Amino acid sequence: MVALVHNLKQQTDHGILDEIQKVHCYSLFVEHRGRWILGSKSASKREARESAILAFKRSRLPVEIRLDDGTVVFGLRAGYPDVVNDLTE
Predict the structure, then answer these.
(1) For residues 45 and 51, what is the distance between their CA atoms, to the nearest angstrom?
(2) CA–CA dist 65, 46 (Å, integer)
(3) C-alpha span between 1 and 81 (Å, rounded)
(4) Would the pTM count as exceeding 0.85?
(5) Which residue in 65, 88, 87, 62 sits closest to 76, CA to CA?
(6) How do the pLDDT tens digits run along the chain, 89 residues long?
(7) Given this model, what pLDDT does residue 80 score?
(8) Are strands 80-85 and 72-77 parallel, antiparallel or unpaired?
């Protein structure tokens, strides 16, 4: 994954890494035993969707992609095609 960050405010390595992490806006969550566990974060819609599909195919556990505010924009569950699919290009 490549993160492009313009107009960095921080000049130290630690500060720049913090700013780059804030750019990630799509979080992959997997439901396991009734708890939602954070799997990964991604900056692109495509990468987030591909990660969710791959995680679902491997585990068959429910998966969701959420924005930073917690809004679910994509989800998969066994027996249902796309529970939520707001990640269309």
Answers:
(1) 10
(2) 11
(3) 27
(4) no
(5) 62
(6) 445 455 545 555 556 666 666 666 899 999 999 999 999 999 888 999 999 999 999 999 999 999 988 999 999 998 776 666 665 54
(7) 72
(8) antiparallel
Dihedral sign for Cα atoms in the order 68, 69, 74, 77 = positive
- Tokens found for residue 74: 């994509």
Residues 62, 31: contact at Cβ < 8 Å? yes
Residue 86: name the closest of 20, 25, 33 by CA. Answer: 25
6 HSE (CA, 13 A, CB side): 0
Amino acid at position 9, single letter: K
Token couple for 12:
């130290």
